[in-house]
Design brief:
heterodimer; A: about 290 residues; alpha+beta; 2 domains; four-stranded mixed sheet; 9 strands; B: about 200 residues; alpha/beta; fumarase; five-stranded mixed barrel
Chain lengths: ~290, ~200
């Protein structure tokens, strides 16, 4: 197996410095929708200029380069231990190049490791698949929006939320209201319904890899996604919480089987800097998207 | 757009109202979670008995923060030939400093706090009492804001780690919006009240 360390550094650089095209397009559409010279329009204007500048200068879009979350798809016969080592090494190199901020802090001592190495850091999920190449997806999940991400246990009496999609709708809108501008709105919501607490959170983050313009193959979820996007924006929180028409840029919902006793709804709030990138390794050829 | 130059007078602060865009110039200091906890524990709770080892930093901060500006930011930095520069420098979430901020404003005579997401009633009260404002920078606009950081003058308490250290920086045309003023106005409270009403309507049926 070839050494993919340099390729992983490039993947990190792309994720940290180049906002995906669908996100940038959504931001431009949002800017056009806001009232001219409103605080909301001003915020979006600054955001778009920042996105352009980061791409041109190859510097991080946001100084909080987040938790790197790697989803690795690999064929039979590949050593996941070697891949993990190369990913960890790439994170250290990317930190030296200032594509990543040193972001891993020892929870006991408070000491920053300085190179993004640490206990279970970065996050890596290995999935064996039956294709013969390797695909690695990376999400850089910032701390501000992670702090407003949340989980509900249904039923929720206070919100009148039962164990059905109407209940899901209610708690998700509550989460958007509670987040206000703190998650760096306009955001994208990754939502998971079901699972246990842990698997539900993981699934909710995995929704954030989906392109904004895709349509959920499950019609009930597709309808819920559209409705939540519209109603979330009706809350009027706006970019940065300055007020305005754009609070959300996308909503993506996935489900997991659950125990009869449990009904969890996890809401992964992602800031406007929804930094995702992917790479494909096919023989000697490496391509990025 | 109103220009603010550090040091900022109380009179200039009292003129500002919620919603106003400003452009900031001069020398400011970054400080976030560890820095605020450190200031409270070493300078404020000690009531004048500053630990000897922290005296030098204290004097630096006194000079910088009186009529000065503190910025909630943990930057990405680079060092070339011993000279630091800011690569990415957007604001971090301010509400985590809510337990400390009012005391820091009062103790040092801080005129403006820059961050994102706004702060709570204790800080809002301190803004009224001492003549200070909260300036909202655009969260995530790290490349753009780094461009307005013209010079890194010093760094204190590097042992806190790069994001948590006090970085003394000179900024030019740093863009922000007044979202909490010195007259009790808070854009955050307004938006929150309004969205609560809308949420109630959406989930009532």
């Amino acid at each position: 197996m070839q050494d993919l360390t340099d390729a992983f550094v490039e993947l990190i650089r792309r994720a940290a410095t180049q906002l995906p095209a669908d996100m940038e397009q959504a931001l431009r559409k949002a800017q056009a929708r806001e009232d001219p010279s409103s605080a909301a329009e001003g915020a979006l204007n600054t955001i778009i200029r920042n996105v352009e500048m980061a791409r041109q200068n190859s510097t991080p879009i946001c100084q909080d380069t987040g938790t790197p979350i790697f989803e690795i798809h690999y064929p039979v016969g590949i050593s996941t231990r070697k891949l993990a080592d190369q990913i960890r090494r790439a994170c250290a190199i990317a930190t030296e190049h200032a594509y990543l901020r040193p972001n891993a802090v020892d929870s006991l001592t408070g000491k920053n490791s300085g190179d993004n190495s640490g206990i279970d850091y970065p996050t890596m999920h290995f999935n064996e698949w039956d294709e013969d190449g390797i695909k690695v997806e990376l999400l850089l999940k910032g701390g501000g929006c992670e702090n407003v991400s949340t989980q509900y246990k249904l039923p929720n009496t206070e919100l009148g939320a039962g164990r059905d999609l109407e209940g899901v709708r209610r708690v998700v809108l509550d989460a958007v209201d509670k987040a206000q501008g703190l998650g760096c709105a306009p955001g994208v919501l990754g939502i998971a319904v079901g699972g246990d607490r842990g698997s539900s959170y993981v699934k909710s983050k995995q929704q954030l890899f989906r392109p904004l313009e895709d349509t959920n193959p499950e019609p009930q979820l597709a309808e819920l996604e559209d409705r939540l996007l519209e109603e979330g924006n009706e809350l009027g929180i706006g970019p940065m919480g300055f007020g305005g028409k754009t609070t959300l840029l996308g909503v993506k919902v996935g489900t997991l089987h659950r125990l009869p006793a449990s009904y969890f709804v996890s809401v992964a709030y992602m800031c406007w800097a929804n930094r995702r990138a992917s790479m494909r390794v096919q023989g000697e050829e490496i391509t990025y998207a | 757009m109103r220009n603010l130059t550090v040091p900022i007078s109380e009179a200039a602060i009292r003129e500002l109202t919620v919603g106003e865009p400003v452009s900031l110039n001069g020398i400011i200091v970054t400080g976030r979670d560890t820095a605020h906890k450190y200031m409270i524990e070493n300078f404020i709770k000690t009531h004048g008995a500053i630990p000897a080892a922290e005296q030098a930093v204290y004097e630096e901060l006194q000079a910088l923060l009186h009529d000065g500006v503190i910025y909630h930011c943990g930057p990405v930095v680079q060092q070339n030939n011993g000279i630091w520069s800011f690569v990415a420098a957007g604001p971090t979430t301010s509400i985590r400093e809510e337990p400390y901020q009012a005391d820091v404003i009062g103790h040092f005579g801080v005129r403006a706090v820059i961050g994102k997401g706004g702060m709570g009633s204790k800080t809002l009260q301190a803004c009224q009492d001492h003549g200070a404002v909260y300036l909202h920078a655009i969260g995530g606009a790290a490349a753009l804001i780094a461009r307005s950081v013209k010079e890194v003058i010093a760094v204190h308490k590097m042992e806190f780690g790069v994001p948590e250290a006090f970085w003394v920086i000179r900024v030019e045309d740093f863009p922000a919006v007044v979202t909490m003023d010195s007259h009790g106005g808070s854009l955050h409270q307004q938006i929150k009240d309004q969205s609560a009403i809308r949420l109630a309507k959406l989930i009532k049926s």
